[in-house]
């Protein structure tokens, strides 16, 4: 490997390390909720506001920071974003009360979408022609490895020596990402002619909105099942205690495999790859609904559902194709859309459960959302054909 290629790989690794820190912070916070609730003397549902605050921060921060950073060099912008994320997590580690913790989680969510979106764009630009999707997948791998290794480790450590330690670890990892970027990421000038107004042009692009809607609706299918999986394992299947963390790790392993697969699907076809993953999500969710109550089969299904979690990759590549001069905003909005899916899936599944439909309903809701994502994808494909004459399964070369 040439020195330039090695430096490029290390730069992408620095982005992936930042993504790893983000993944640990987001998902480990959910698992440690009972511990910081007890420590701060608040009820679990009040502690849940910290989780919601993070998601709100992502949805708000992704478009706002992407627009404000449009004229900044990518390297400097990425370093500023992940440094801000580090400081917000360290603030959470010393939060004296629930209000301060909730505020720190909101601040930590602000750079989430912009960092991941811009890091994926930067990684794609570092890869040879025809391998841009592989660069996107390498950054996203940081998130999936966080679910396999980082979240269980942070959760165990948080239980052993206190929940605050998790935020300290995340802050240190994020600062390490800053240091690596400073050492290895290439210095780049802002895109020629970049401006906030041009970034806001994405909001007038129908193809961008349809692509975002595919993820916002379709990926809700994963969260409809995943959010209630542990409770279903205990209540409906009577699973042993050790089976739940094992199954959640299987989901992370499936997501890691799925990201590798999704990168190749995206290189073959943006639309076709998205269709394959959504169809797999729909079938797996429906199969899950049919076997709820059998915990070994439920574990197998959550693993298979994880393999569809790479949906973000072909959608990210599609956005790069259609966003024109609004690349940064479109990439950031992609992660905001997936956080919307994180809220939509559990909300609809929760309504079904409240109506007394039973745990299998989470699978049926997941299948319905994935099917709705396919319907939106069909609209996006029709829009693409109308605009540029491309056929389903043909990737439009990125600018």
Span from first to last CA? 27 Å
Poorly predicted tracts of residues: 390-399
Q: Give the second-level CATH assignment, the architecture of the largest domain.
A: Up-down Bundle
Gyration radius, rounded: 20 Å
CATH topology of the largest domain: Growth Hormone, Chain: A
Sum this structure up briefly.
The protein has 399 residues and is mainly alpha-helical.
3D architecture notes:
This protein has helices at 3-31, 33-40, 44-68, 74-93, 98-126, 132-161, 164-184, 196-200, 206-218, 220-226, 229-235, 243-268, 270-291, 295-306, 312-322, 327-354, 360-388. The chain has 399 residues and is mainly alpha-helical. It folds into two domains: 1-194, MFS general substrate transporter like domains (Growth Hormone, Chain: A, Up-down Bundle), CATH 1.20.1250.20; 195-399, Growth Hormone, Chain: A. Helix 4 packs antiparallel against helix 7 (164-184) and helix 10 runs antiparallel to helix 17 (360-388). The chain is globular. It starts with a helix and ends in an 11-residue tail after the last helix. Mean pLDDT is 85; it is low at 390-399.
SSE layout:
Elements: H1 3-31, H2 33-40, H3 44-68, H4 74-93, H5 98-126, H6 132-161, H7 164-184, H8 196-200, H9 206-218, H10 220-226, H11 229-235, H12 243-268, H13 270-291, H14 295-306, H15 312-322, H16 327-354, H17 360-388
Helix pairs in contact: 1-5, 1-6, 1-7, 2-3, 3-5, 3-16, 4-5, 4-7, 5-6, 5-16, 6-7, 6-12, 6-15, 9-15, 9-16, 9-17, 10-16, 10-17, 12-13, 12-14, 12-15, 13-14, 13-15, 13-17, 15-16, 16-17
């Amino acid at each position: 490997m040439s020195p330039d290629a090695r430096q490029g790989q290390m730069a992408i690794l620095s982005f992936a390390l930042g993504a790893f820190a983000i993944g640990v912070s987001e998902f480990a916070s959910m698992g440690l909720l009972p511990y910081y609730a007890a420590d701060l003397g608040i009820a679990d549902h009040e502690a849940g506001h910290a989780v919601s605050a993070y998601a709100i921060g992502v949805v708000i921060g992704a478009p706002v920071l992407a627009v404000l950073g449009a004229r900044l060099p990518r390297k400097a912008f990425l370093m500023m974003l992940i440094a801000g994320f580090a400081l917000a997590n360290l603030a959470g580690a010393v939060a004296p009360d629930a209000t301060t913790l909730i505020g720190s989680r909101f601040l930590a969510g602000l750079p989430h979408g912009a960092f991941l979106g811009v890091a994926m764009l930067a990684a794609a630009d570092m890869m040879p022609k025809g391998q841009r999707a592989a660069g996107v997948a390498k950054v996203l791998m940081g998130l999936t490895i966080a679910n396999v290794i980082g979240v269980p480790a942070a959760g165990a450590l948080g239980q052993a020596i206190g929940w605050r330690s998790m935020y300290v670890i995340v802050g240190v990892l994020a600062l390490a990402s800053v240091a690596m970027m400073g050492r290895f990421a290439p210095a780049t000038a802002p895109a020629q002619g970049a401006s906030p107004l041009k970034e806001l042009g994405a909001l007038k692009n129908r193809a961008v909105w349809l692509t975002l809607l595919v993820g916002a609706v379709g990926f809700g299918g994963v969260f409809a099942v995943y959010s209630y999986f542990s409770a279903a394992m205990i209540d409906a299947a009577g699973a042993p205690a050790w089976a739940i963390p094992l199954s959640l790790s299987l989901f992370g392993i499936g997501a890691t495999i799925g990201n590798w697969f999704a990168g190749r699907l995206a290189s073959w076809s943006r639309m076709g790859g998205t269709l394959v993953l959504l169809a797999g999500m729909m079938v797996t969710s429906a199969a899950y609904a049919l076997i709820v109550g059998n915990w070994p089969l439920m574990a197998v299904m959550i693993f298979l559902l994880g393999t569809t979690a790479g949906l973000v990759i072909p959608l990210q590549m599609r956005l790069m194709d259609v966003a024109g001069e609004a690349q940064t905003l479109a990439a950031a909005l992609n992660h905001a859309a997936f956080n919307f899916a994180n809220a939509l899936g559990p909300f609809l599944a929760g309504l079904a459960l409240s109506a007394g439909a039973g745990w299998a309903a989470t699978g049926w809701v997941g299948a319905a959302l994935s099917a709705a994502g396919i319907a939106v994808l069909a609209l996006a494909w029709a829009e693409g054909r109308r605009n540029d004459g491309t056929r389903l399964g043909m990737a439009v070369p990125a600018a």
